[in-house]
Amino acid sequence: MSARGGRRPAAVVAHRGSAAGAPENTLAAVRLALEHGADVVETDVRRTRDGVLVVLHDESLARTTDVREVFPERGPWCVRDLTLEEVRRLDAGSWFGPAFAGERVPTLREWMDAVGDAGMLVEAKQPHLYPGIEHQLAAELRAVPGLHEASAAGRLAVQSFDRDWLHRFHEVAPDVPVALVHPGVPDDELLTADSTWLAALNPALGNITRELVDRMHGLGLATNVWTVNDPRDIQRALDWSVDGVITDHPELARPLVGARR
Ligand code: G3P
Ligand code: CA
Hints:
By secondary structure, the chain is an alpha/beta fold. It has helices at about 25-35, 65-70, 85-90, 110-115, 135-140, 145-150, 165-170, 190-195, 210-220, 230-240, 250-255, and strands at about 10-15, 40-45, 55, 120-125, 155-160, 180, 200-205, 225, 245.
């Protein structure tokens, strides 16, 4: 995932796990991503009411669990309004398919244990909703065995759409590489200024060009493009020498990238 220290083969980054084949951000999706040969697993982190970091994309549990049935009076079912014990009662797999009934919303710690030696790309989702989450996330990541080696080898990074929060996180945990997820085309002046502390800038597929990839590399930044599911788009991104393809289909990206690194 990292450009510093020279180019390596692109990483296959499993978006929310292998999200096309298993319910996103569950341990089943992590296991499938590893079966698919992903180099890195991407996830989204939020916090429960009682302060536990969990792995969930949306602010609300409604789309990816049966929370409406279990707690009909608790709408809009934000994860920050439920305790971990309450979140644990929810089925996070049946919405995707009956074979996944009983999957749970994992804690970040459980997710990290499941990812094991593979790479981790951890996205802090709407961190302003969870005051102080930068300290908590830094503490959780410091529990990763070989944090320094994992960071240096491009096997660990934290990303966010929230630039100011990401900078705060960087100050708290300067040993963890940080990537700015960018919804548009980055302004060159900002890109140049932020290249002093960012490890990577991760743009959406529709916003990258070969010129932008070259510019980021020229500034010493890596770039991981999301969310790339069509093999033709994956190949195009690889032709432009991106550092990682973030995909719901690691099984399609793996043969295009080559052997697992
Ligand atoms: O990794 C980038 C990508 O995950 C950002 O979009 O909404 O899927 O978290 P989203
Ligand atoms: Ca994400």
